[in-house]
Amino acid sequence: QMGKGSFKYAWVLDKLKAERERGITIDISLWKFETSKYYVTIIDAPGHRDFIKNMITGTSQADCAVLIVAAGVGEFEAGISKNGQTREHALLAYTLGVKQLIVGVNKMDSTEPPYSQKRYEEIVKEVSTYIKKIGYNPDTVAFVPISGWNGDNMLEPSSNMPWFKGWKVTRKDGSASGTTLLEARALPAPGQRHCRASRGFVPQLVSQGIGTVPVGRVETGVLKPGMVVTFAPVNVTTEVKSVEMHHEALAEALPGDNVGFNVKNVSVKDVRRGNVAGDSKNDPPMEAVIILNHPGQISAGYAPVLDCHTAHIACKFAELKEKIDRRSGKKLEDGPKFLKSGDAAIVDMIPGKPMCVESFSDYPPLGRFAVRDMRQTVAVGVIKAVDKKAGGAGKVTKSAQKAQKAK
């Protein structure tokens, strides 16, 4: 059973009844498979504006983003327009630290004429210009003309587009080429981060008979059974009993791994989505007041939603400290009264509820953020410094106490 025609491949990943009935993706869903080189986790994130929060949660877990752009008449123009979802999704992917981008130019069968080379080249030119502005290098991005409905260039080269000679990307670590979207997906994954103390954020929680299983991504360091971890900002300390990926037990999980880890004596009420787990002995994370580097349309007192990793929390712009040059970082003005679109500034921000973030220089995955208001992304930035405060006496489970005594 396939459902809506234009929804053919999405039908596999959309599990919610409402998604299948409405013909749109609402929440993120994960599918996993293995290749000879990698464990691959596909995160299907919603493109619809109403569910952008879920899209951010999904994107923040990814190593590589596949941006699907519709080539149909009027569809591409709507997506790439000033308030379009194509722009917003590319911007959020870069802001959330997704280094690798692939662009699938979809619905090539519905261009005028069908499979138009001119239309494809026009789209590649415009998307390249935009992604370069936000920070991607177009030379490192694979562009593939596809038809998800007919399967053109999805798994095998299409005879409908003989003019397409394939994609090629050039990077510092070498170049790669191919023809299909499948081949583009096999591009080497970006380097992983082992240098810092362990950090992992929690996008999901599962309660099982054996205890609570936080599901999330290891961002820095390692996560292994026997480690005592602290969840911030809730300040809950417990022992990691086991770590699993793809239903297999792991001796240790490394940066980039999407895993589930079993913790005893912790209920789903103690820990929630957006919390960060870190090694309790090595630089444990704490709740933060944030000072950050920020472009947008803002004045002091503004309180939009800040999205950082999988946390979505209202934050108040307490003080506009200085306006800076976007490219050089040099100070232009002290204490500006307001910031307009295109400006960059150093700003003091205070979260409305406890949240766990880090400075970008120490923990890049936990130091990037997006600011949303009026159902759109109004600003992006990085955290320059964090004014940390201890969370007070928090919960320490019996298993954590035993593990700490044993060491």
From TrEMBL:
Annotated Tr-type G domain residues: 1-193
Pfam families associated with the record: GTP-eEF1A_C, GTP_EFTU, GTP_EFTU_D2
Highest taxon of source: Eukaryota
One term of GO molecular function: GTPase activity
PROSITE patterns: G_TR_1 (PS00301), G_TR_2 (PS51722)
UniProt keyword GTP-binding present: yes
Keywords annotated in UniProt: Elongation factor, GTP-binding, Nucleotide-binding, Protein biosynthesis
Protein family per UniProt: Belongs to the TRAFAC class translation factor GTPase superfamily. Classic translation factor GTPase family. EF-Tu/EF-1A subfamily.
Primary role: This protein promotes the GTP-dependent binding of aminoacyl-tRNA to the A-site of ribosomes during protein biosynthesis.
The protein's name: Elongation factor 1-alpha
Source organism (scientific name): Dryobates pubescens (Downy woodpecker)
Organism placement in taxonomy: Eukaryota, Metazoa, Chordata, Craniata, Vertebrata
